[in-house]
Specification:
mainly beta; 160 residues; 4-stranded antiparallel sheet
């Protein structure tokens, strides 16, 4: 299988330096609305969303562009990034704009992050103990079972 886009250790994508020994490429989603799948680069320094660009000339590999990045210890809107204690559960179009958003949990909250005008920002965030309809959020005991359109509900949670 031929790779459509490649980058190696030390490659710079915007302001992000890729370190494959410590970072995970995960969860493709269409974050920028260009119709191509994008990637989440997740590691001990934070999180980045990257998109592949079409090749400049036929037969050449694609290059990459940085869509958004958030370093650990900094905020994406209300969400304080800390990848060592947080989990990306997947992507879905939570706000109906036709682009993927990120569903994340941490020890004290659940959040949905989206790309805004100033990079990655918080679309929604709720702390443990918050009541959403009949669900009381508790990220320590709740288990995300799926993301998708379940009769108008985009998230399915098993509450322990």
């Amino acid at each position: 299988m031929k790779s459509q886009a490649t980058f190696g250790a030390g490659s710079r994508i915007g302001g992000w330096t890729f370190a494959p020994d410590s970072e995970v490429l995960d969860y493709a989603g269409g974050f920028d609305g260009d119709g191509r799948e994008d990637l989440i680069v997740w590691g001990p320094d934070g999180i980045a969303l990257v998109s592949s660009l079409p090749p400049i000339r036929a037969g050449q590999p694609r290059s990459w562009k940085l869509l958004a990045a958030v370093a650990n210890g900094t905020r994406a809107g209300k969400w304080m990034m800390g990848t060592e204690k947080q989990t990306v559960h997947g992507t879905g179009d939570f706000n109906g704009d036709g682009r993927a958003d990120l569903l994340m949990t941490g020890p004290n909250a659940i959040g949905v992050l989206t790309i805004g005008n100033d990079g990655l920002t918080t679309l929604a965030m709720h702390t443990n103990g918050t009541r959403l309809g009949g669900w009381i959020i508790d990220t320590r005991s709740n288990r995300i079972e799926g993301i998708g359109d379940f009769d108008g509900c985009i998230l399915r949670v098993n509450q322990a």
